[in-house]
Structure formats: structure tokens, C-alpha cells
Write a structure and sequence with these properties.
- By secondary structure, the chain is mainly alpha-helical.
- It is built from 4 helices and 3 strands, in the order H-E-E-H-H-E-H.
- Strand 1 and strand 2 form a beta hairpin.
- Helix 1 packs across helix 4 and helix 2 runs antiparallel to helix 3.
Length: about 130
């Protein structure tokens, strides 16, 4: 079964479609947000590692890349704390969520699932 097929089945199983509206269960949304936050943390570590590995130069493409990385690291570091707070708040509310489902675009869920499956396939191919 292809990643797209599995992703489509996943989005069908975790959401409810009524007319033109697609809604996903609170707990599943909270899990996906947490997963995305974990990936953002890993991305920040990757960016820091790349910046450290690059040689110091005063000008040129490498200097431009290091400056871009510095800006991204600063911005993403500021977001990391807030993402942790969000994960905590969602987790606290999971026992008694304020809403049962959240409306969103079904393609978002399918795309995210496809990305997760593609990552898993890449990791599996390297072992």
C-alpha cells in the first residue's frame, strides 16, 4: 500500500466529514501538534550543528548561510519554549477537552501523514 493510500485512510479514520467540513478529534490533533513540536526541536538541533560545523568567513556564501542560520536559530529558540507550553496545555486539556473535534483542511492531515510515512521509509531504508 502506498504512503498516499495509508495517509488517506488515516485522515478518513481520525476525522469526521460532514458536508464540506472535515473535523479531527481533539486527542489526535494534540498528538499531531506534539509530533510537529518534536520535529521542530530536532530541526533546531540540526541547524545549530550545521552552523557550528561551517567554517568562519567574513563574506561569501558561507557567511550568508551562517547569518541565515543565526537568524533562524534565534527565532526558533524563542518559539521552542512556547511550543512546550502549548504541548503542556493541550495535554492538560486532553482529559476534559473544551471541544470534541476541530475543523481543519483534510489535506493538511493527509500531507502530514504522508511526510511521517516518508520519513519512516527513509529511516528504514538506511538500516
Amino acid at each position: 500500500m502506498s504512503s498516499e493510500s495509508v495517509s488517506s485512510l488515516y485522515s478518513d479514520n481520525v476525522g469526521i466529514t460532514k458536508g464540506d467540513s472535515y473535523r479531527i478529534a481533539w486527542q489526535e490533533l494534540a498528538w499531531l501538534v506534539s509530533h510537529a513540536s518534536s520535529m521542530a526541536e530536532a530541526r533546531l538541533d540540526l541547524l545549530k550543528s550545521l552552523q557550528t560545523a561551517l567554517p568562519s568567513q567574513d563574506s561569501g556564501d558561507i557567511a550568508d548561510l551562517k547569518e541565515l542560520l543565526s537568524n533562524l536559530i534565534i527565532m526558533q529558540s524563542r518559539l521552542a519554549g512556547r511550543e512546550e507550553e502549548l504541548d503542556g496545555a493541550l495535554s492538560l486539556l486532553s482529559g476534559n477537552p473544551p471541544v470534541s473535534h476541530v475543523a481543519l483542511n483534510q489535506d493538511t492531515i493527509s500531507s502530514m501523514a504522508t511526510e511521517i510515512l516518508s520519513a519512516a521509509q527513509r529511516i528504514t531504508s538506511k538500516v
